[in-house]
């Protein structure tokens, strides 16, 4: 007996999430949040809820010149920011991290960063001034203070040796000393979500949640100290601290198996960090294009697309970029111009109108699932925080460039959040780098 040929609908069904399923996901995530904040159950939670030691948002009186380093992917930025309360002037430069450095030694990585920082300061004529620096380091870390962050694990394709278990601020300081640079004073290390929250709070004081949907996916929020059982520091005012949830690891304890598809499992099986960051792998820009590619391969094997024939490029893992998903869904020309350009890059010839429609449907299904999963996470935070009104700061390439992601998220958060709690989504205009400088500025203000 032959197996029944799977149609597009059959294949995509597993990626469609009802509100009932999203509410179940939200309840499971809340359970992980509560475990993560409880010192007796923290080790049982896959969502680690790290206190960031950032206790306050900008109040508009911050002044001075600050540096920021923003490391969160294969590019990093060096920023110099002049703050005058709500006004600021900023310069920044993007530097590339070669693959060999991403997968080399930790010392080589920090030497590369220190050299680029030095080059930028020299270019600005600031290399002889002592400047405070905020360091955005967007990988899972346990923070032991505002200037102490120990790397738990690499993500996003980094595998640098001899960094896991080490304080990344000390590694940066050591690299600067090796280069004879003692004019940079690292006064804060933050995660990119915290940077996003701070950056948006500088513009709107009601911002209390920061979310990143880019290469990776994560969120942070401001929590009352009385709810943070893992907090062993002073209890002075303000009675609050930003918590870095590290929700990308949600599901690593197998609690999300009921929504993971065969394709999700295959992607994880062939990833650098097998069994880790399972929630992130269903959402983020690192994997979205690959999910689409694998669905297309499955449809082609069933003869449902491209007459069942795929060029070698389509059979190459990660050849279908996540940005292609945004291009394809942005295509409103009626002539499928963007889809044709993407298929040209993928070396597909003689595609039909039906193929275009199927590819668009696949992209839409994958990006919608991603937006709904993030929405479930944000709704969980809003329902937990119980604030009348909260601004949610959001950054990351998927959110920034996908044509419908914001609208999908907004609609679904509204459906999943108690109607008493109002919210707005705010794009973080200057990314997480400015937020790192603002954390440094708030630290400078509060230490006076």
UniProtKB/TrEMBL annotation:
<dbReference type="InterPro" id="IPR022672">
    <property type="entry name" value="Hexokinase_N"/>
</dbReference>
<comment type="similarity">
    <text>Belongs to the hexokinase family.</text>
</comment>
<comment type="function">
    <text>Catalyzes the phosphorylation of various hexoses to hexose 6-phosphate.</text>
</comment>
<dbReference type="GO" id="GO:0001678">
    <property type="term" value="P:intracellular glucose homeostasis"/>
</dbReference>
<dbReference type="GO" id="GO:0005524">
    <property type="term" value="F:ATP binding"/>
</dbReference>
<dbReference type="InterPro" id="IPR043129">
    <property type="entry name" value="ATPase_NBD"/>
</dbReference>
<dbReference type="GO" id="GO:0006096">
    <property type="term" value="P:glycolytic process"/>
</dbReference>
<keyword id="KW-0067">ATP-binding</keyword>
<dbReference type="GO" id="GO:0004340">
    <property type="term" value="F:glucokinase activity"/>
</dbReference>
<dbReference type="GO" id="GO:0008865">
    <property type="term" value="F:fructokinase activity"/>
</dbReference>
<keyword id="KW-0547">Nucleotide-binding</keyword>
<keyword id="KW-0418">Kinase</keyword>
<dbReference type="GO" id="GO:0005739">
    <property type="term" value="C:mitochondrion"/>
</dbReference>
<keyword id="KW-0808">Transferase</keyword>
<dbReference type="InterPro" id="IPR001312">
    <property type="entry name" value="Hexokinase"/>
</dbReference>
<dbReference type="Pfam" id="PF00349">
    <property type="entry name" value="Hexokinase_1"/>
</dbReference>
<dbReference type="Pfam" id="PF03727">
    <property type="entry name" value="Hexokinase_2"/>
</dbReference>
<dbReference type="InterPro" id="IPR019807">
    <property type="entry name" value="Hexokinase_BS"/>
</dbReference>
<keyword id="KW-0324">Glycolysis</keyword>
<dbReference type="GO" id="GO:0006006">
    <property type="term" value="P:glucose metabolic process"/>
</dbReference>
<protein>
    <recommendedName>
        <fullName>Phosphotransferase</fullName>
        <ecNumber>2.7.1.-</ecNumber>
    </recommendedName>
</protein>
<dbReference type="InterPro" id="IPR022673">
    <property type="entry name" value="Hexokinase_C"/>
</dbReference>
<comment type="pathway">
    <text>Carbohydrate metabolism; hexose metabolism.</text>
</comment>
<comment type="pathway">
    <text>Carbohydrate degradation; glycolysis; D-glyceraldehyde 3-phosphate and glycerone phosphate from D-glucose: step 1/4.</text>
</comment>
<dbReference type="GO" id="GO:0005829">
    <property type="term" value="C:cytosol"/>
</dbReference>
<feature type="domain" description="Hexokinase N-terminal">
    <location>
        <begin position="8"/>
        <end position="201"/>
    </location>
</feature>
<feature type="domain" description="Hexokinase C-terminal">
    <location>
        <begin position="208"/>
        <end position="442"/>
    </location>
</feature>
<dbReference type="GO" id="GO:0005536">
    <property type="term" value="F:D-glucose binding"/>
</dbReference>
């Amino acid at each position: 007996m032959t197996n029944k040929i799977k149609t597009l609908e059959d294949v995509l069904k597993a990626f469609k999430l009802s509100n009932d399923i999203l509410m179940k996901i939200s309840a499971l995530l809340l359970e992980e949040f509560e475990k993560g904040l409880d010192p007796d159950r923290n080790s049982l939670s896959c969502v680690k809820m790290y206190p960031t030691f950032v206790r306050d948002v900008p109040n508009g009186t911050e002044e001075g010149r600050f540096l920021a380093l923003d490391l969160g992917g294969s590019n990093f930025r060096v920023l110099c920011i002049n703050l005058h309360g709500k006004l600021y002037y900023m310069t920044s430069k993007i530097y590339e991290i070669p693959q060999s450095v991403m997968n080399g030694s930790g010392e080589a990585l920090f030497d590369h960063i220190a050299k680029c920082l030095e080059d930028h300061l020299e270019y600005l004529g600031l290399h002889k001034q002592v400047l405070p620096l905020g360091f955005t380091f967007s990988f899972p870390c346990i923070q032991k203070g505002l200037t102490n962050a120990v790397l738990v694990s690499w993500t996003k394709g980094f595998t640098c040796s001899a960094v896991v278990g080490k304080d990344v601020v000390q590694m940066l300081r050591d690299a600067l000393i090796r280069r004879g640079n003692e004019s940079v004073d690292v006064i804060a290390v933050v995660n990119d979500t915290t940077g996003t929250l701070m950056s948006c709070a500088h513009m709107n004081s009601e911002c209390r949640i920061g979310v990143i949907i880019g290469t990776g996916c994560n969120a942070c929020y401001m929590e009352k100290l009385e709810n943070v059982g893992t907090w062993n520091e002073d209890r002075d005012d303000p009675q609050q601290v930003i918590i870095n949830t590290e929700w990308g690891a949600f599901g690593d304890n197998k609690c999300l198996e009921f929504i993971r598809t065969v394709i999700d499992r295959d992607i994880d099986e062939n990833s650098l960090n097998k069994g880790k960051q399972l929630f992130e792998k269903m959402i983020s820009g690192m994997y979205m294009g690959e999910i689409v590619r694998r669905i297309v391969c499955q449809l082609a094997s069933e003869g449902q697309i491209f007459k069942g024939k795929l060029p070698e490029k389509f059979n190459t893992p990660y050849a279908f970029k996540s940005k292609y998903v945004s291009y394809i869904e942005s295509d409103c020309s009626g002539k499928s111009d963007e889809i044709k350009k993407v298929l040209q890059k993928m070396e597909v010839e003689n595609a039909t109108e039906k193929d275009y429609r199927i590819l668009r449907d696949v992209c839409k299904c994958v990006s919608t699932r991603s937006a709904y999963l993030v929405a479930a996470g944000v709704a969980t935070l809003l329902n937990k925080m119980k604030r009348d009104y909260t601004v949610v700061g959001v950054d990351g390439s998927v959110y920034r460039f996908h044509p419908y992601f914001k609208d999908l998220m907004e609609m679904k958060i509204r459906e999943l959040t108690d109607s008493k709690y109002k919210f707005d989504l705010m794009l973080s205009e200057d990314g997480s780098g400015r937020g790192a400088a603002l954390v440094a500025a708030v630290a400078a203000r509060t230490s006076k």
